[in-house]
Amino acid sequence: MNAKLGIAIARRLGASCVSLVFVVVAVFFITSALPGDVAQSLLGQAATPDAVAALRHSLRLDEPVLLRFASWAGGLLRGDFGMSLVSHQSVMSMVHERLLHSLLLAGITTLFAVPTALLLGTLSAIFRNTVFDRCVSVLTLCVVSVPEFLVATLAVLVFAVQLHLLPALASISDIHSIGSFLAAFSMPVATLGCVIVGQMARMTRAVMVNVLSSSWVEMAVLKGVSPTAIILRHVLPNVVAPLFNVMALSLSYLLGGVVIVESVFHYPGIASLMVDSVASRDIPLVQTCALIFCAAYLLLTTLADVVALFSTQERSRA
Amino acid sequence: MSGHSPPPLITVRNLCLTGRRATGPETTIVSNVSFDVAEGEMLALIGESGSGKTSIALALTGYARTGCRIAQGELRVAGHDVRTMGASELRSFRGKTIAYIAQNAGAAFNPALPLMEQVIEPALTHHILPRKEAVDHAIALFEMMALPTPHTIGARYPHECSGGQLQRIMAAMALITEPEVVIFDEPTTALDVTTQIEVLEAFRVAMRQCGFTGVYVTHDLAIVAQMADRAVVLKNGSVQEEGPTGQILNKPTQSYTRQLVAASQPHLRNHDALPPATPLLDVQNLMVGYGAIMPNGHPRHTIVNSVSLPVRAGETLGIIGESGCGKSTLIRAIAGIQPWSGGNMFFAGEPLPPRIEDRTPQQRQHLQLVAQNADLVLNPALSVGATLRRVLTFYNEDASDAALNRVLDMVRLPAAVAGRYPTQLSGGQKQRVNLARALAARPRLVLCDEITAALDTVVAAAILDLMMELKRELGVSWLFVTHDLHALRSVCDHVAVLYAGHCVEFSTASALNAPPRHPYTRKLESSVPEMHPGWLDGVIRQNGLKPGRVAPIPAHGCCYMPRCPVAVADCAQTPPPTWQAPSGALINCHLQAPDLS
């Protein structure tokens, strides 16, 4: 049984590794195909063609694309993500701090959003087609469909500009107390939370409705089992796998999809770093950021699948 | 009612149940239903689908499905006034005073929990027994239900048990709290007839030993005769007739009950002489399976094993066997949607390629498949007319309104049906449209996969009548797959009996009644419930019950050997020969005519 589970997990991890290789290839060639040129953008409009060519040569941009890919991929294997073309710092050191900031934001949002979403989704599945369910449904639909730049901008307008309750910028460098922590994070987290909770609550509801309308739940009701016990004992083991997938899909958005929120609140995360590096055509930085987003997505979905394998291992014997 | 009868344990007075779809007005499901059940009595609720019998049974537990509501009436069960109880009172009432056995045990067990956890749950929930004693009690109940390996079966998950086992385990789950009332909701409908006997017998043993009061919901009058003391006949949510079982079955007073009884009686529909022996479809030594191809060229799991069947032009060939015997796979192979790994097929003298893509347009047109479940086959977004017209244009037939009406007329549907959508049709009408879809292609052979299995008795009888009329009018041949021996006898010219992918007997339908017969044919025959009350006792006395796990099929011997009551030593060693009985039947068995009579 355990050997079988081990093989299944190893296969899943192997599949993820293969996907990762494809991601590495895709990231490199897509970013290489981006229009624009770092030498041109560094030197500005007035640069002479000779100066641009000289800079291109010194940055090794004139080498064949396959050769550049080989040296880049080789660097990745050694843990070397290359040097920024613009700041001449190592990409690793530039990304490091930004990634921590992003993970902090994602982590806080997760802590707040996941329980809320699961609770809302489960409750509206239990009380489906009641007024409560309809309210949650309409609310989550509104929240999902309003673009986040609007939510973020409105939040700034109301809480920072009109009410002067919170600072408009999330400056995380001067967090000294709980108060300043809340001031910095409440608006970005709330904005991100809106989208995540809306999405996740709706998907949770769908998963739960599906399970709750099964005939074994009806059977449990007819045995006199209490609603709490039905949810915890009967339903939970059956929804672990789909719910982890729901969470993985929603949470993977927290690293890559937060460009707008980071920009609006001037939050020094990795998404805003990527936007800046695209603007300056700093390709190694763009590649690393893209790679991090893809890897996070891959990691979360793999994790969800491994959890699913664990949750059904008892049943899949023999 | 005599004055001496004890006070009823269940009293239902003027019960009305209503329901509504997601949108739309509230409609009445059950109106003004009243009945009593005395202590220790078994009452049958008889009715076809939509008669409200399950809704009434569920209402006894104070439960109504989503969208449904107990609108009015009085419900008294074992001294409880069900309608006035609050949520927590209902919880301690359900599972303790009244237990429910659901129709489909496969779906009614939680797939993620071991069976024992679920079986002892009512006892733990209602604090009747501590865990250890509950487990012991469950094991005792498993023994009473004649389940194999009663000490360890509880550790299995639902998907590790067969349907018949699950149904008995569910009965054990219901009885673990020693409830006063047990509701049986069509508990054997989804089972094969041979399994049904074991389950029915287990229920009767439980009734004798535990002495509960029962409500048995079913549409099968023969089961009612075995299980119930009294019966209530329902139609469209109202009571048609009520009385002792014997009276309902033998002297029904209401026309609907008479109609039901008549439809359940076996009756011969096929009166035509056997057509001349020109095979239209000739299946020779067909092997079909699933899984990876093994070194011997056959798939890992063989489903149909060396089956040969001739279908004559203008006849009906019936294929019978229990679930999993390979009858649907055989049909799918003939239809060209399941490739075969060995054997040949000839259609109208021409070889028939395994893949439908390789067949000629004529072959495709002349060989039509009618699937079991019309709900799944008919496109809900297309009107009946559009569905049929598509067939006509696909085969370059005349697709005018007149042609369309002709097709609908063939299946006795009014022309107005052309404008309707599948959801606006009844089950029987949908099955007629399903047939019409096949007939529109002007086929020579129609493959019918259990087309009456999902229909009510009366509706199914009408479909069988229609099949026979079409056979006479159009001269089509039918290949009729079923697990219902009555239906098979009633419409078929020839019959093939399938067991574990082998054709164990091939005979004319009339020879099926006369010995010698294959032991499995005999078993099937004796397993079909009959309407007289002593039937089950007789079968049990005759065959005995063989609980326990059946041995695997021997690699080289006879496929039926593990279950065969007359098996001899040879059966495990060599494959049985096929020999011809005087009646013309081809029997695949080691034993000879005198032993099989």
SSE blueprint:
The complex is a heterodimer of chains A (about 325) and B (about 600).
Chain A: H1 2-32, H2 38-43, H3 49-58, H4 65-77, H5 91-126, H6 131-145, H7 148-162, H8 178-212, H9 215-222, H10 227-256, H11 259-264, H12 270-279, H13 283-311
Helix pairs in contact in A: 1-13, 5-6, 5-8, 5-10, 5-13, 6-8, 7-8, 8-10, 10-13, 12-13
Chain B: E1 8-19, E2 27-38, E3 42-46, H1 53-59, E4 68-77, E5 80-81, H2 87-93, E6 98-101, H3 105-108, H4 115-125, H5 131-144, H6 163-175, E7 181-185, H7 193-210, E8 213-218, H8 221-227, E9 230-235, E10 238-244, H9 245-250, H10 255-264, E11 279-293, E12 299-312, E13 316-320, H11 327-335, E14 342-347, E15 350-351, H12 361-366, E16 367-370, H13 374-377, H14 384-394, H15 401-410, H16 427-439, E17 445-449, H17 457-474, E18 477-482, H18 485-491, E19 494-499, E20 502-508, H19 519-527, H20 535-543, E21 578-580, E22 586-588
Parallel strand pairs in B: 3-8, 3-9, 6-7, 7-8, 13-18, 13-19, 16-17, 17-18
Antiparallel strand pairs in B: 1-2, 1-4, 4-5, 9-10, 11-12, 11-14, 14-15, 19-20, 20-22, 21-22
Helix pairs in contact in B: 4-5, 4-6, 6-7, 14-16
What is the structure about, briefly put?
The complex is a heterodimer of chains A (318) and B (597). Chain A has 318 residues and is mainly α.
Entry keywords:
heterodimer, A: 318 residues, mainly alpha, MetI-like fold, 13 helices, B: 597 residues, Rossmann fold, 3 domains, eight-stranded mixed β-sheet, six-stranded mixed β-sheet, 20 helices
